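Entry:
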Amino acid sequence: MTVISTILLISGLIFFTGGSVGILRFPDFYARLHPAGKLDTMGLFMTLSGMAVYVLSDFTVSALLTALKIMLIVVFIFITSPTATHAIADAGMRAGLWPWARTREEEK
C-alpha cells in the first residue's frame, strides 16, 4: 500500500509540475487556463488518491471514513474546477481579452 501511495503522490507532483510549467510558458490568458484547469485537477486527484490509499493501509473504521472524506473532496473538486475555469474564461471574454494570434513577424 505504501508503494502505491508513493506512486500516486509522485504522479500528482508530476502533474502539478507540468501545470506550473504550462502556466509559465503558454502565451496568453486562455492558453494558461488550460493547464491550470486540467493538470491541477489531475494532480489533485492523484495526490489525494495517494493520501486516501495511505490512510487505508491502517484498516480501521476511522481510516475508512477518513479515506471516504478524502475521496468526497476529490469529487467536489472534479465538479467545481471545470466550472470555475469556465467562469474565469467567460470573465476574460467579457472583459475584452481576445485570444493570442500569431503575427507575421513571429512566424519568421
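The CA atoms of residues 25 and 57 lie 39 Å apart.
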